[in-house]
Design a protein that fits this description.
With about 180 residues, this protein is mainly alpha-helical. It has 6 helices and 4 strands. Helix 1 crosses helix 2 and helix 1 packs across helix 6. The longest helix is centred in the last third of the chain and has 30 residues. The protein is elongated, with a radius of gyration of 19 Å.
């Protein structure tokens, strides 16, 4: 399965290190930073939750469906509207990036994650190659009803991008000042 992540970038060198340092200095301040970030991106989360349909986006998504492959043990569907909405969560990560061949994990420091398999299927279907005729029909139907891939979360981000980037920049500057002061 191709994994696609919509990205926008604001590059500040040393943020992950500063987060790790803050965590070692003052765990309460580090948790507060995570809460502050969650507050900054709450308009994105609320709007994405509002855009997400309560009923199954396509009729077949109301039924139990498992993906193919050895790693696919949990069902992808049925659609669970409100439960899928609750799986949109902001995150702050101080983990060091790790490389596995050409794949690098833990690059993002700040982000919003949608952990529901069914919601991710609806959100991003059609972004990559679609190998089957039924898959192409599903993508076409989703695109007609909800627009192109990045249907809910990415669209919400784009609407609030300027405000979020401005506030995250302030948050990062405060973090860097705090760590410099405490060193």
């Amino acid at each position: 399965m191709t994994r696609y992540v919509n990205t926008t970038s604001l590059e500040v060198v040393g943020v992950k290190e500063a987060l790790r340092k803050l965590n070692s200095i003052d765990k309460v301040a580090r948790r507060q930073l995570t809460k502050d970030y969650a507050q900054i991106v709450s308009p994105i989360v609320r709007e994405a939750q509002g855009l997400t349909p309560n009923e199954a986006p396509l009729s077949g998504m109301a039924y139990r469906w498992k993906g193919r492959g050895a790693k696919q043990t949990k069902p992808i569907f049925p659609w669970a509207g409100a439960k899928d909405d609750r799986s949109i969560k902001p995150f702050v990560s101080g983990k060091k990036p790790r490389q596995y061949g050409n794949y690098v994990s833990n690059l993002a420091t700040f982000g919003v994650r949608w952990t529901s398999p069914s919601a991710l299927t609806v959100e991003m279907s059609g972004k990559g190659k679609v190998p089957t005729a039924k898959g192409k029909q599903m993508v076409q139907d989703l695109s007609q009803r909800y627009g192109q891939p990045g249907r809910f979360l990415w669209r919400s981000y784009l609407k609030h991008e300027e405000e979020v980037v401005r506030n995250v920049t302030k948050l990062i500057n405060d973090l860097m000042r705090r760590v410099q002061r405490d060193i």
